[in-house]
Design a protein that fits this description.
The strands form 2 sheets. The chain has a 6-stranded antiparallel β-sheet with strand order 1-2-3-4-9-5, with no helix packed on it. It has a 3-stranded antiparallel β-sheet with strand order 7-6-8. The protein contains 3 helices and 9 strands. The model is unreliable at 1-19 (pLDDT under 50). The protein is α+β, with helices and mostly antiparallel strands. The structure holds 2-acetamido-2-deoxy-beta-D-glucopyranose (3 copies).
């Protein structure tokens, strides 16, 4: 076995699995105005994320901030907009569509700000048309291509050669209006918001 063959899986393991297995809780904030960070470049963690039930932020061993959703697992935190009570999250493995197939925020303090109605489809490789429709690479394999679109009419026009895997209300951060199949959603961030506890006027809007 060459060195690169040994190192590569190890590297993948440490990048993708290690932080998730060893995620630890940030220290509790000692006061309302206290804030802490998992790493130098991460958004500050403060009320309601320190200590409030359901706001499960963790720090990974790589000093990244992650959010744990009980039914959907762990997501990387892109940004926390305290004044708007919104959080942007993405998939650490860059395969968001796979996460969206089982995404469910039931039982969490969060809700969707926007819903974009996405259709996920598969098609046997030999019938894929037209060839310039970009598939979702991480869900395609040697025999099937996997596609996503927010254009329902287009999705319907591809049946029955294409098969619908699932229709999902995606909490996108902007209104994707696609005319074609697109892989953009796979690399996007999801936008969740919380209403309670309401601290929009706590005067921390400009504190970073
Ligand atoms: C994470 O942060 C700690 C404390 O600041 C630091 O000692 C450590 O080197 C950092 N780890 C990485 C992977 O950046
Ligand atoms: C999420 O889970 C809840 C509780 O199991 C269920 O009632 C609800 O239909 C699910 N929502 C979605 C979008 O799958
Ligand atoms: C390829 O993907 C399709 C559709 O997602 C799945 O049904 C099939 O089992 C996969 N085949 C292999 C060899 O992984």
């Amino acid at each position: 076995m060459t060195l690169s063959k040994q190192v590569f899986p190890l590297l993948l393991f440490s990048l993708f699995n290690f932080p998730l297995l060893h995620a630890s809780n940030p220290r509790k904030c000692s006061s309302y105005y206290d804030s802490l960070r998992c790493g130098r470049f991460e958004d500050p963690i403060r009320f309601p994320f320190c200590g409030h039930t359901g706001f499960n932020l963790h720090c990974t061993d790589l000093n990244k901030t992650v959010l744990e959703l009980p039914m959907s697992g762990i997501f990387l935190v892109d940004e926390i907009k305290y004044a708007k009570q919104q959080i942007l999250i993405n998939d650490p493995r860059k395969c968001l569509v796979k996460r969206l197939l089982t995404f469910n925020i039931s039982g969490t303090p969060f809700s969707h700000r926007l819903n974009v109605d996405y259709t996920f489809l598969t098609c046997p490789k030999e019938v894929v048309m037209p060839s310039w429709y970009p598939p979702i690479p991480c869900l395609s394999n040697s025999t099937f291509s996997f596609f996503a679109t927010s254009n329902l009419a287009l999705a319907n026009s591809m049946l029955p050669s294409y098969q619908v895997v699932k229709r999902v209300d995606v909490p996108a951060s902007w209104l994707f209006q696609e005319s074609i199949f697109s892989s953009s959603i796979n690399y996007a961030s999801l936008l969740l918001e919380w209403d309670s506890p309401n601290c929009k006027s706590c005067g921390m809007a400009n504190m970073r």
